[in-house]
Amino acid sequence: MDETLNRYRESIDNIDAALVFMLAERFKVTQAVGEHKATHDLPPADPGREERQITRLRQLALDAKLDPDFTEKFLRFIIDEVIRHHEQLREG
């Protein structure tokens, strides 16, 4: 097998694992946020914060030479999932 390709793939595997663990940690925190919102009768979504986050992360993507449209789609997917969890918590 091509050793160079093998090393690239090992790096990709390590990065993928780190992404999974980072997402897991993020969802632990957003779960706590959802519980706080439900307890204090706060709305599951905060459109203003979402827009500020998208703007901030689009700029980070540009700085990192990553497609900001891809970054926004990725973030939107995560935000939508978090809101869904928050809505479930609110409904009990």
TrEMBL record:
Domain Chorismate mutase: 1-90
Protein's UniProt keywords contain Lipoprotein: no
Gene3D superfamilies: Chorismate mutase (1.20.59.10)
InterPro entries: Chorismate_II_sf, Chorismate_mutase-related, CM_bact, CM_dom_sf, CM_II_prokaryot
GO-annotated molecular function: chorismate mutase activity
Keyword Protein biosynthesis annotated: no
GO BP terms: chorismate metabolic process; salicylic acid biosynthetic process
Keywords, sorted A to Z: Isomerase
Designated name of the protein: chorismate mutase
Origin species: Sphingobium psychrophilum
Organism classification: Bacteria, Pseudomonadati, Pseudomonadota, Alphaproteobacteria, Sphingomonadales
